[in-house]
Amino acid sequence: MAKAEASKEIRRKQLIDATMRAIGRYGYASLTLTHVAGEAGLSPGIVNFYFKSKDQLLIATLENIAEEYSTLWQAAIAKGKVSPAAGLEAMIEADFHAFVCNPEKVSVWYAFWAEARNNANYQGLVMGLEDEYLKVTEQLCARIVAEGGYEGVDAHQAAVGLNAMIDGLWFDCLMSPAKFDRQAAKRTCLAYLAAVFPAHFGAAAATKRGKGEVDANIAMAIDQDVQGRDAHRARLAAALRKRLEPVGPMRREALAAATGVSVKVLESWLEGRAEPTSWQMGRLIVAVDAQLWMEVYGPVHEEAQRLFEARLAQQRDFAEREQAVLSSLSGKPKD
Amino acid sequence: MAKAEASKEIRRKQLIDATMRAIGRYGYASLTLTHVAGEAGLSPGIVNFYFKSKDQLLIATLENIAEEYSTLWQAAIAKGKVSPAAGLEAMIEADFHAFVCNPEKVSVWYAFWAEARNNANYQGLVMGLEDEYLKVTEQLCARIVAEGGYEGVDAHQAAVGLNAMIDGLWFDCLMSPAKFDRQAAKRTCLAYLAAVFPAHFGAAAATKRGKGEVDANIAMAIDQDVQGRDAHRARLAAALRKRLEPVGPMRREALAAATGVSVKVLESWLEGRAEPTSWQMGRLIVAVDAQLWMEVYGPVHEEAQRLFEARLAQQRDFAEREQAVLSSLSGKPKD
DNA sequence: CAGTATGTTAAATGAACATTTAATTCCGCA
DNA sequence: TGCGGAATTAAATGTTCATTTAACATACTG
Question: Of B1 and A65, which is predicted with more confidence?
Answer without folding.
Answer: A65
